[in-house]
Amino acid sequence: MPFCHSIINISCVKSSWSNDMRASLYSLMVLIILTTLVGNLIVIISVSHFKQLHTPTNWLIHSMATVDFLLGCLVMPYSMVRSVEHCWYFGDIFCKIHTSTDIMLSSASIFHLSFISIDRYCAVCDPLRYKIRINVLVIFVMIFISWSVPAIFAFAMIFLELNFKGVEETYYKHVHCIGGCSVFFSKIAGILAFMTSFYIPGSIMLCVYYKIYFIAKGQARSIINSNQDLQIGLEGKNGISRSKERKAAKTLGVVMGVFLMCWCPFFVCTVMDPFLDYTIPPTLNDALIWFGYLNSTFNPMVYAFFYPWFRTALKMILFGKIGLI
């Protein structure tokens, strides 16, 4: 049986996968990383370069793309080696930095999704006062919260070792080994992480989208049922505007669906594992982490499919016309 460290009796066990299996996993994960980096980099360049895209909403999208890009750049490559080899070769201090950064960026991405849903709610439900309510200052506050709260939570949790406070004996007896870098949560820490990083922002997204769906549906019905001649021109204008906002609402629904599909399995296992006496296999946990990472990979694809401005910017970037604007 291969080990990660020369001191066998306290070393983590290395993966026993064949070279072909390793090559396949590395190829798949490299593809995910590159897709994440390229997709989010295009979003960052598009919003930064084209002045027409310098709107408060797009700066929120720009900030989320930056978070997802950093996740693909700073976190995923090291997670890839750990997931394939089942060993950590980068030292204990960097393990804490990597784990903290992982939790921070993953949570920050989810926070951004939650604030984007609030932004879309204001656009659909109160379009006349939208520009007054959602201005640059409000977006800045949203971005600041989306970065700072996950950062404080993640680094405090890991560097103060609050994640296994109260179950230190269990951790050092049955989980800790030299050459490993696994995330371990006590019952309280697991619930706290679940609530902070997933349940609260996810519930906000779910409730907001639920309201947006029914309000947009009611707006569409009112436009169809309106037969007053004096309002035809006005309704035509409002109809076009509201049609765009309903499309944005559908985009939010897809983003939320992708978010739940990617992150729900991981966070459910995270909160349940301490109550199941840590019987969930580490390999399954690793797989679910990568499933969660896919959320950062899919976000730019959702923009490319739903937002015309993104498709236009993408074509200009790919054909080298970006310097002409």
From TrEMBL:
GO terms for biological process: adenylate cyclase-activating G protein-coupled receptor signaling pathway; adenylate cyclase-inhibiting G protein-coupled receptor signaling pathway; phospholipase C-activating G protein-coupled receptor signaling pathway. GO terms for molecular function: trace-amine receptor activity. Keywords: Cell membrane, Disulfide bond, Endoplasmic reticulum, G-protein coupled receptor, Glycoprotein, Membrane, Receptor, Transducer, Transmembrane, Transmembrane helix. It is found in: Cell membrane; Endoplasmic reticulum membrane. Residues 39-303 form the G-protein coupled receptors family 1 profile domain. It is a multi-pass membrane protein. The chain crosses the membrane at residues 25-47, 59-80, 103-122, 134-160, 188-212, 252-276, 288-310. Pfam families: 7tm_1 (PF00001). PANTHER family: HISTAMINE RECEPTOR-RELATED G-PROTEIN COUPLED RECEPTOR, TRACE AMINE-ASSOCIATED RECEPTOR 1. This is Trace amine-associated receptor 1. The gene is TAAR1.
